[in-house]
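Is this the right way to post structure tokens for a design question? Let me know if I should format differently. Anyway, here goes:
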């Protein structure tokens, strides 16, 4: 059997700082680039395409975190995923600068009707020639609900609503028959109304009556991505997603997770193994020598503002950590927020106790992802273990300083993976789905 080849995604946000807190102040961050301008995104896109990445993954949340001390002051003060611009606006810039690279946009279902969501995603899929993915989220952060003037609903309710949301999206995406467009100038008939079916939906959460406003896009529907990690979230992901994201700090946790997801996939939802890619988060710090890589890593860690770290952790886990003693163990606490990411710090030291103060720094550095520091060979060695022993199909690379971290990965690690036969040497498909689902 030939060894599995890695899939790669660049994990970023449309903002001044992505997921590694404090990176905006790193001396190598965005030198000569403005994240709010197209040139920066064109360069990032071309770099990832040069490295044959499947896609750029644009994370998002809808408003600045305000869980810490019931305020968004520290979020604002330390640029904790702040400011963050709307994610789908850059998709056409990215796909316009490339031929193969896909874009995964995170779009929340919480405050948008499925009808307009389906329309927007079909439009983006057309504009990109079939290179759009949708990271389906339902707004886990209180700040998002506050900003939209709504009462936050519980997890069970959010997933129930999400099921119906998807149901209506699928109805819209499949409502046109393939030969619906006639476009006969002679007769003046553009489309056959018999073949553009009206969608009538009347459910507990949504009502809709209308035809999908966009003709079928190259992929028919966007590639579906999901990162739910609670019991309910894992089922939702196993049922709907084509790529699932997780942050798992050790190989043992990866193995457990992969076994769980694969069994849900096959046993509960009757989907073939391999029809969903398991993509794990990693943070890499690469250099030609180990000493150089370690020095780079130390410089990166020196950028983390401890207060900003606490504000971020409070936002993601839905708990006000300003009320806790920093020496308290994280293992003794239960959080209402993103369960899967909390587990990444619970197990950051193989289950050994971690204090809140330490957890904040681990988390702020890269969301609890395993950090690989070393030469291209060291990093490729670890990625191979994550694939072969941990069950990973690919990796989402969390940004440190940009665009440098992606340039370095593409220049140093990609050729090493290719030499080992563990990475593609060209794109094989025309659409994102074809590339992502290839072995
Ligand atoms: C790797 C990873 C990335 C995520 N990215 C986002 C994101 O960009 N925006 C968001 O609203 N939620 C994001 N989430 C949160 C989940 O998609 C999900 O909404 C959240 O985990 C709550 O669902 P759960 O309770 O089932 O885990 C992410 C989760 C993980 C593990």
């Amino acid at each position: 059997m030939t060894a599995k080849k890695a899939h790669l995604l660049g994990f970023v946000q449309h903002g001044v700082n992505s997921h590694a807190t404090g990176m905006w102040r790193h001396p190598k961050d965005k030198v000569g680039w403005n994240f709010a301008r197209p040139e920066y995104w064109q360069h990032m896109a071309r770099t990832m395409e040069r490295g044959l990445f499947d896609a750029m993954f644009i994370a998002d949340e809808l408003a600045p975190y305000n869980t810490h001390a019931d305020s968004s002051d520290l979020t604002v003060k330390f640029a904790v995923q702040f400011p963050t611009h709307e994610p789908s606006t850059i998709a056409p810039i990215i796909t316009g600068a490339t031929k193969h690279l896909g874009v995964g946009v995170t779009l929340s279902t919480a405050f948008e009707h499925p009808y307009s969501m389906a329309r927007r995603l079909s439009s983006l899929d057309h504009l990109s020639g079939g290179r759009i993915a949708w990271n389906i989220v339902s707004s886990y952060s209180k700040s998002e609900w506050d900003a939209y003037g709504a009462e936050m609903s519980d997890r069970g309710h959010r997933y129930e609503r999400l099921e119906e949301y998807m149901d209506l999206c699928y109805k819209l995406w499949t409502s046109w028959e393939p030969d619906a467009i006639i476009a006969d100038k002679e007769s003046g008939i553009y489309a056959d109304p018999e073949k553009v079916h009206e969608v009538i939906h009347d459910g507990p959460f949504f009502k809709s009556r209308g035809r999908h406003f966009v003709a079928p896009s190259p992929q028919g529907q966007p590639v579906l991505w999901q990162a739910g990690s609670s019991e309910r979230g894992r089922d939702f992901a196993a049922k709907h997603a084509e790529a699932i994201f997780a942050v798992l700090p050790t190989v043992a946790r990866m193995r457990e997770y992969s076994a769980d997801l694969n069994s849900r996939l096959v046993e509960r939802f009757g989907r073939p193994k391999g029809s969903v890619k398991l993509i794990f988060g990693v943070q890499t710090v690469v250099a030609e020598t180990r000493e150089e890589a370690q020095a780079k890593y130390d410089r990166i860690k020196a950028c983390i503002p401890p207060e900003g770290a606490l504000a971020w952790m409070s936002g993601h886990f839905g708990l006000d950590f300003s009320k806790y003693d920093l020496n308290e163990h994280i293992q003794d606490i239960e959080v209402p927020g993103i369960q899967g990411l909390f587990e990444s710090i619970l197990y950051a030291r193989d289950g050994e106790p971690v204090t809140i103060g330490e957890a904040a720094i681990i988390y702020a550095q890269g969301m609890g992802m395993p950090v690989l520091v070393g030469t291209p060979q060291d990093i490729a060695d670890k990625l191979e273990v994550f694939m072969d022993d941990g069950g990973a199909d690919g990796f989402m690379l969390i940004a440190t300083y940009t665009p440098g971290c992606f340039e370095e990965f593409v220049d140093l690690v990609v050729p090493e993976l290719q030499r080992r036969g563990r990475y593609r040497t060209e794109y094989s498909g025309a659409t994102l789905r074809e590339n992502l689902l290839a072995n």
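Format looks fine. Someone answered above. Worth noting: Residues 47 and 407 are 6 Å apart (CA to CA). The pocket of flavin mononucleotide is lined by residues 59-61, 106, 108, 137-138, 140, 155, 227-230, 232-233, 245-247, 281, 338-341 (CB under 6 Å).
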